[in-house]
């Protein structure tokens, strides 16, 4: 490295000092730059050598300190050298730009020798090299970016953006500018530079210039990301500022709406980002129209990303005003409502559009927006079920299934096909499909409804109000004999009836009318067939739906209970008959098993052997005979001995047939434990336990030389029935005598040794899983040792097993809870989190909660992990007293009052957005951690006890909440206040969900205020919050009664208990939005002085007409004719006219090909001098006189000269054509911006003359 630097330095000095060298100015500057950089490298290398020498020679502490100081100086020198290199590159770029722009002097003007100016390619190459080097420096040294002056860099780079430079040079320039942006101040400095026209032209280029176009789009994205000023919380949403001019925005939008452009997608997404920051800029430049078009007709991938953007816009009245009600967002429905007559390839897109519509209807913004104008949009969607297209209707039906979260069972398709369901049977408890069934079908229990269920309940009522059930009934009438589509409609009708919070008679009156219509037999057939299908579906669902695993004891008169009683009776009879078996029959049965005749277990009669073990051998007399006389038990037990390699060598691959031998071994040990002779035989006469211990000893590294193929090797445990020995030992641990035998043979000692083996976690997990812990003693010590193992994965598995044991236990066991509480202090946070989760689930039982509170665990060290558990403690008087004395209540109340109320709202809204698909779910565990029920709230838990009620009253927080709601309940601008309002509403709702807390709401009379907010708030998400809050208040009988007085009906379970869902009697009053007038864009005062030349006027008029798609072709032909005429040559090469043309495309809507055509018309290159002239024109051509006032709602006139800037929403071809036909006459005192000396279209003869 040092040699290379010296060579560069010497070569540069030789070139510079050579008197005969004739260097060009630009080359001399480049050589000097290389020399300075070589000197910097040499200095840095010399400092490193000196530093290394000092460290090697001096070892003292003082020398170490000096070395550290030198090191810091070295870093400073490195930064200074890098900054110097960057400055040299900037100076080089500036000098190249000056030399390139300087005129070439004539040879006669000076006596000194003149050197030719470097050609364009050489200049471009030098610029590109310098900019690439500077960009690399900025990428490697981020600190240098903050030291550079962005304005100085831009001024040095601007010459590289000229038309004379190559495409790669311009792309490199944009890339360099992007890397100099670090903060908003740097973006402001860049905005002061004349870059707009360069960016506009680069965006207009065709597909041959993708490299340059890509870099300019990246620059725009960097400006948006770094330089945008986000909305102030007090100024409303989307009210920020994006530092992009209208000219750049319109050029960028033109790229976004061009179908074939490869950068269309990224431009659409960038526009969506800008819309969320500065909606006024996007609306003023016509970007909302482009985004709506992409939402309705663009790729589904883009539409799915734009959907949440527009839902956010609809939520607030300020941003909602930029949309036209009944027109704009309804464009998303056109893919479904206009599907009739489309080709079959439209089916896939139709499914994607239905998913988007489902996403919209699952949000408060989308639902209430589509409920405007008497639910016109939803009615149009429902009416698509009546169009004569089978494919379209089936897709729409599937959309309603998904929208209402209807999980179809496995026999769904059979029901649709009209076949009988006799082949399906209810899943047996414990079967593998039971869990699947429970997930497929919703369980009906007495617990409160989930938040998603409450929303879907409201959605069902809205759809029924919009005529969904009537549309389904009409589908029945199409085919009296029934079809797959009609049966699918029946299934869709049955689900809302089963889950809707209204009486069935209110939901399906038309179906009943058809069934009772005796005048027309066809109607009666249709009605009775539909009701019969609904009844059949409900009966089959009740028959095939499995009972919840955690349900209460089955009823005595249930079918399953009779089956269980019959099975128990059969088993008792078999045992009784076995015990009464005579000697001859018993001996014959022993011989029939073949155990006495052969050692090959495949020849044994397994059924007879199983009957013997479960029957006659339970008789102590028969057991004694089998042990002492016939030696039957000895032969049978020898089969299970590990070292006999009979049972232990059976392959595990055939699970069904070989698993029975493991069960037989467990049953045999249970039978031996049932008689004293069996216990004595197992303890003194048989080697089973002794060989088990020896097998475990083979794995002990302290027990001599390990065996090459031990019985409990990993391969044998995974591939053979060796694992069954762990189940057999677990069977022994169920009996007190079995535990004594295991203690006698030191089986537990072997367990303790195994627990120290890190490599055999499979055995440790098997022991933990199979051992029975119902009897106090060594088994519990084994579990305790596993819970405190030195290996984290063992502790996790043991904690999980302990949690499952507690969950499945029918009673509260103090020893299991004590062990689980001990795990809360584990050094690994994963173990603590798992223990806290299981303990929180267990504390759902009041008995367990009281027991845990009595143990008074300390949970402060857990932080957020133990938060839910502490909230459960607060719901009991003893737990509240314990936490209050510990100071937790006061500390946590202040924390919730100032911070956690806000976090609570964010948690719920994020969950609902993920559950309804509004935002993607990155990890499914996020949904599993939130079960859909309203999360615990500190204020809700504190109001459950009398002591908590008193503390809450003393603090006075509720009075402050009520005051805030009264003062800011109808706020619709300040986002910070709206978020706090939601948090306080949730707080009040959780307090009101308790009997004690409801007293606060009654005393303050806050319920009428919440109802007013729910019906009148202009922020739709606040209305949704009020809906859930009113559901919380209705979860108590007293709260439901209060809400009933205000015409909000609370739904009740069959037992008369509130379900937590409250529906307004007048549902339209709740879901409808008041109409609004679309916000009109403020006309800019930007006007130019009209040109004086008739030729310029004709050219500019034709260019203006290019924005009108009706007369654009005529204008294009006119421009071509004018361009071919010699007298117009000066017009198309005039920078002034070029500036006027660019000003037109910056204030009106022009498509990308038209913009490209306008740039190609002019023979004017974008050079720094031309851009400076255009900047002067922008000042001199600007009209400063006050604008003539116009009526606010004057009819829109389309001028064939200088068309006024297009307003949003008036750019369609039809509107333009009508406007041209009905164009009013312009008065003589019209403002100069109209530029209409006479009404004629250039290219047409006046008065019919030719």
UniProtKB/TrEMBL annotation:
Q: Which GO terms describe its cellular component?
A: TORC2 complex
What does the entry give for GO biological process?
A: TORC2 signaling
Q: Which domain of life is it from?
A: Eukaryota
According to the entry, every stretch annotated as the Rapamycin-insensitive companion of mTOR domain falls at: 978-1050
Residues forming the Rapamycin-insensitive companion of mTOR middle domain are 581-808
User: Where do the record's region annotations for Disordered lie?
Assistant: 99-125, 426-446
What protein name applies here?
A: REM-1 domain-containing protein
Q: What organism does the UniProt record list as the source?
A: Dentipellis fragilis
